[in-house]
Each structure stands twice: as C-alpha cells, then as structure tokens.
Design goal:
Helix content: over 70%
Number of strands: 0
Strand content: under 5%
Distance between the termini: 59 Å
Number of helices: 1
Oligomer: single chain
Order of helices and strands: H
Mean pLDDT: 83
Radius of gyration: 18 Å
Structural class: mainly alpha
Shape: rod-shaped
Length: 41
C-alpha cells in the first residue's frame, strides 16, 4: 500500500506540474492579448 501511495504521489506531482504549466500559459497568453488590445486602442 505504501509503495502504491509513493508511485501515486509521483504521478500526482507530474500531473499538478502539467496543470500549473497549462494555467500559467493560458493566463500569460490572455494577459499579453489583453495588453496588446489596450496598446492598439
């Protein structure tokens, strides 16, 4: 059971890293597009 928890924690760590990366990229692209709209207007 402990070994499974350890493997699960590693998978969860990788999954969370991917989710954080996706969220960061999404917020970054929306932020840059918003600033582009402001400068153009």
């Amino acid at each position: 059971m402990l070994g499974w928890m350890q493997r699960n924690a590693e998978l969860l760590n990788v999954f969370m890293s991917l989710v954080l990366m996706c969220v960061w990229v999404a917020s970054y692209s929306s932020f840059s597009s918003a600033s582009c709209g402001r400068t153009a207007a």
